[in-house]
Design goal:
single chain, alpha+beta, Beta-Lactamase, Helix Hairpins, Heat Shock Protein 90, five-stranded antiparallel β-sheet, five-stranded mixed β-sheet, 12 strands, rod-shaped
């Protein structure tokens, strides 16, 4: 027995045992007081008879003998007649009185103004008794003798013992049922907890297919569901991470292969064919830029993960950044026989933001649109000013995104289409950049129809909230 079971048993049984012990002690005191008080009341009732019996008596001893001989409860109560010298001269038992036996109640009654006293204790024989002595006085107030009542408490003690034993038995039965119910209850908790612990260790070791059997539909069941869901999400994230590593590795290998191949070609050619050299150098530069873009994308994602991405804000012409992004992608579109249709507005107000980061977002979105379009595909780009927001809409008539993949495309490492090049973090980076500008990046897509990306950038940009906070502090 260890852990929860041990603590539960010690705490629960410890408290219940203490409570039952206190209850038993209290019950014993009450029961004993009940029986002893009952006997005392009987003795006091009997002692009141003496006042009338000995009031007009001229011979104490004769009256005492007559009273004792005619006493009706001899079998229950022992009566003793004590003379003025403190000697017992007659008892209801008929045996010779034992004048060596101490009588604390008699001595107390002599000193009492009420002329009576009681005592509870053990005789020299060890018997537990209750005694009451009533001292008889004459008209001058002098003691002429005393009547002593003695009752054995053995029968009362036996009843008290039986009552306490019955209560203890009931307590033992209660403890037994508590033990049984607690054992069953603890099993219903400990068994799932142990399985949860075992499964969690498997998950921690990388077995994301491990699952917990749901035992009960309660908080434990909810915990099992949560851990199973966590394992599923970790498995998905691990797969996405592995796919990301594989994808990035492939993305890095492609430009590196081209760079190495053309470098070797230029080296072998010995710079004799100027045309070949220029072509090779051009490809090397292009692939190096592509390689640099992949590395920058990974670094940006790392900054986002560590919350270290910082914007260099200024008043920028967002149309100029968009125009440059389109210009950079138009040559590629022409080479792939795809079309970019751009409806440029006349004029837009300047935006406070990071021009380089926004250009990165536009390039990423246009690149994705071209990537998922077939030959002769069309990418439409439009810009408008709506309620102090610049809204850029980039749509294509490509393959589209399924309803299952659409909610996840902005998650890190997620790629809806594994057959198309890309690391799977471009949209996550773009979404974070737009968020840092206090804007939104929304994606609407229908499989087989196309995708529309709507980027909304506030004209005030990322400084808007700061100004609002300053105004609130001034207020």
């Amino acid at each position: 027995m260890r852990g929860i079971t041990k603590r539960w048993m010690l705490n629960t049984f410890g408290i219940i045992f203490i409570i039952l012990f206190i209850l038993v002690i209290g019950f014993a005191v009450v029961v004993q007081s009940f029986y002893y008080n009952g006997i005392a009341q009987i003795l006091y009732g009997r002692s009141t008879e003496i006042v009338n019996i000995f009031r007009d008596s001229s011979d104490f001893k004769e009256t005492a003998r007559d009273y004792i001989e005619n006493f009706p409860d001899k079998e229950l109560i022992e009566l003793m007649a004590i003379d003025s010298d403190g000697k017992v001269f007659i008892t209801t038992t008929g045996f010779t009185p034992d004048n060596e036996q101490k009588m604390p109640d008699y001595e107390s009654a002599l000193d009492s103004d009420e002329h009576y006293a009681d005592w509870n204790g053990n005789l020299s024989s060890g018997e537990n008794v209750m005694a009451l002595t009533n001292v008889i006085v004459d008209s001058n107030g002098d003691s002429i003798g005393a009547i002593r009542y003695v009752v054995s408490l053995e029968q009362a003690d036996r009843k008290v013992f039986i009552s306490i034993a019955a209560v203890c038995l009931i307590g033992i039965v209660i403890l037994f049922f508590i033990f049984v119910s607690s054992t069953y209850f603890l099993r219903s908790i400990v068994r799932p907890v142990r399985e949860i612990s075992s499964t969690a260790k498997k998950i921690a070791q990388g077995d994301f297919n491990a699952r917990i059997n749901k035992f009960y539909d309660d908080e434990i069941g909810d915990l099992c569901d949560t851990i199973n869901y966590m394992a599923g999400e970790l498995g998905t994230a691990d797969k996405m991470k592995n796919d990301f590593i594989s994808s990035v590795s492939h993305e890095l290998r492609t430009p590196l292969t081209a760079i190495k191949g053309w470098a070797e070609t230029v080296q072998l050619d010995g710079c004799r064919d100027l045309k070949t050299v220029q072509k090779g150098i051009g490809i090397i530069i292009k692939e190096a830029e592509r390689l640099n873009g992949i590395v920058e994308e990974v670094l940006d994602f790392s900054r986002i993960q560590e919350d270290r991405m910082v914007l260099i804000v200024d008043h920028i012409d967002i149309l100029a950044e968009l125009d440059e992004s389109i210009y950079m992608q138009r040559e590629r579109a022409n080479a792939e026989h795809k079309h970019i249709v751009y409806d440029e507005p006349e004029i837009l107000p300047p935006v406070i933001g990071d021009g380089n980061r926004l250009r990165q977002v536009f390039i990423n979105i246009i690149d994705n649109a071209l990537k998922y379009c077939d030959a002769d595909g069309v990418v439409n780009i439009s810009v408008e000013n709506v309620d102090d927001n610049i809204v850029i809409i980039i749509s294509d008539n490509g393959c589209g995104i399924s309803a299952v993949d659409l909610p996840k495309v902005k998650q890190k490492f997620y790629k809806a289409n594994q057959t198309v090049r890309g690391s799977g973090i471009g949209l996550a980076v773009a979404d974070e950049i737009v968020r840092l500008h206090n804007g939104t990046l929304d994606i609407d897509s229908q499989e087989g129809v196309g995708t529309t990306v709507t980027i909304t950038i506030p004209i005030m940009g990322p400084e808007k909230n700061k100004n609002d906070e300053e105004e609130e502090q001034e207020d």
